[in-house]
Write the structure tokens for this entry.
Amino acid sequence: MACDLHVHSNASDGGFTPAEVIRHAHGIGLTCVSLTDHDTFDGIEDAWAMARELSMPFIPGIEMTAVFHDQEIHILGYFLDCRDPGILEALEKSHACADKRLDQITKNLTAQGLPVTMEEVRLEAGSGSKGRPHVARVMVRKGYVQTHQEAFDRYLGNYGSAYVPPKGFSPEEIYKLIRDAGGIPSIAHPGLLGRADMMKDDDIALHKEYGAMAIEIFHPRHDDFLVSYYMNLARKMDMGISGGSDCHGSYYPVILMERKAVPDWVSEKFIEFYKLKTGKGLQD
């Protein structure tokens, strides 16, 4: 049995609608799911409605973007009040910063002979929050690159020719926003960049001091060594354990939810951790 606490929909940069996320998770036998779209709660209501219809345990979530030393740090938030005024105001500011950044990226691409407009990016994103993946999809569609990964490697990633450093909230501010909204903040995929650049003991301890309460241990880019490493750290530091596929639906060759790599005890223990730390029960 498996769960998945890190899934995206087309409310941000995923390929499934929020309801389709839940239907697919239920159809493959997952026991619990959390929708964690980038910097938006827009898909939560539809996902929750489908989860209720299917009698499937559901955790409201989000993946927020912080900026640390000019680099993006992703922070997952779980169990939080999606109507909290403080976090909603912060998300509006984040979207404004993201739009300015994307506008400059499109100008950089155009200056390099690869014209991309913000209107094309908006059309690609639809009603969802916009990000660099939408620029990559425009580039693939226009034939500038063959794949999403090539767009990031050559143009949009940290060392790409059109890259623009992010601006936004610090990790401390994001952790506080999530906690003030009644949620549990979890460090997202701390080993994403591999063992050479993974977050280590001192990094995790620093983020716990900033306000992190959990670590995403299970992730497609975490091998057995990283899972074991972060599991031991979480126990040692009295932090919660989260995990998910980081599934973006049909935009990738493999629908990562179908790996079913996160054991169901992760959601069970995480819910217990939430109750212990907040004194609250899981909402219906």
Notes: The chain has a mean pLDDT of 94. The first helix runs from residue 18 to 27. The longest strand covers residues 58-68.
